[in-house]
Design goal:
This protein has 126 residues and is mainly α. 90% of the residues lie in helices and 0% in strands.
Length: 126
């Protein structure tokens, strides 16, 4: 009976950690997408300084949360997104707008893929 109780308690702990990890990573990737879209819109509106500040905030947001993300998932995706954010920021600062927009699209695709990896499906489990 004690073993069954311990197994049930462990099941709830694991389910809780999985839910926490899913919520954390999904929320942070959605915030990052919002910052990215805001920076793009600011550039369309001609507010280059505000767009640079938004990209800095995006970079800070992602770097501040990457430690907790890496506890639960492999390093590859979050690190790749972090590198691409830095590249997009450098394109923005140097005034290379087509490259900036292309890099933003790449980041958005990676964030979407990152969120898809978090959804518990048979393909992600296997």
């Amino acid at each position: 009976m004690k073993r069954l109780l311990i197994a049930i308690i462990l099941l709830f702990i694991v389910a809780g950690l999985c839910t926490f990890e899913f919520t954390l990573n999904t929320k942070e990737s959605q915030h990052a997408s919002e910052y990215l879209k805001t920076a793009q819109q600011q550039m369309v509106d001609g507010n280059e300084k505000e767009a640079i500040q938004t990209m800095k905030k995006l970079k800070e947001l992602w770097e501040s949360n990457i430690e907790s993300m890496l506890i639960f998932i492999s390093h590859e995706k979050p690190d790749e997104i972090c590198e691409n954010i830095a590249v997009a920021e450098s394109y923005l600062k140097s005034g290379e707008l087509p490259e900036f927009y292309a890099e933003c699209k790449r980041i958005e695709n990676e964030l979407e893929h990152f969120r898809d990896l978090e959804i518990p499906t048979i393909n992600n489990i296997l």
